Fold:
Amino acid sequence: MASSKREKELARMRAERQAARRAAAAARRRQRNLIIASVVGVALIALGAIILASKLGGGSTNAIATKKSPSAAPTKSQAPGTCTYTPTKAAAARKVDLPPQTGVETKQAFTVHLTTNLGLIDINLNSAAAPCTANSFRSLVHFKYFNNTPCHRLTTQGIYVLQCGDPTGKGTGGPGYTFADENLKGAKYPMGTVAMANSGPGSNGSQFFLVYKDTQLDPNYTPFGTITKGLDIINRVAAAGSVPTGDGKPKLSINILSARFEPTKA
Structure:
């Protein structure tokens, strides 16, 4: 009888030890899961910040941030009618000459006609507010840089823009030169704005974005024109969405077939 009681007592003690070990293991798992969840949460927050900071860039050379970012460095003043275009180490996506750097138009407005596979988009260039940007844009049109190029990126969440101007269609191509920002003081980006994409102060090249819905951005992207025709086309592209959803390649492909410019008629 004593032996039976002893065996029962030993069995009870073993069961208690096993239960205690299981409880300790469960506690360790809970602690580990909490740590993992915390790390994952921080990582997701960081990833979200990175995604927001790289909106509509598609590559290392042209990006548009959707949240607060450091203000662009002040543009160095130049003599009226004078612009500086600095050659880059990276090869041009499509070879062009540097734009004229003297005698740049500062008063005459110009209209650029972009013929796309979906119809005509007209842009009124503001030579007075952004003469060097408008001068570069006209030069690229002159050299047919934009002909047969895709609008490679559409953003429909946070900001509302269609980005074009890279012959490679990857978001990393440029014309082989950069130039300074302009027209940033108090810059706003309402529907119809045309502005330069960039990767930081003074890194403008050939990529630009078309704003199809009022968008909140820091004044870091040179606004240089206004859409006067074809906003409905861009809205059709936006309505079709992108891959990935919200920020990526437009599902409804839009390609610039040709471009030309002329003085804006009064």
Notes: The CA atoms of residues 156 and 245 lie 8 Å apart. The radius of gyration is 28 Å. The chain is about 30% helix and 20% strand. Confidence is low (pLDDT under 50) at residues 34-63, 65-76.
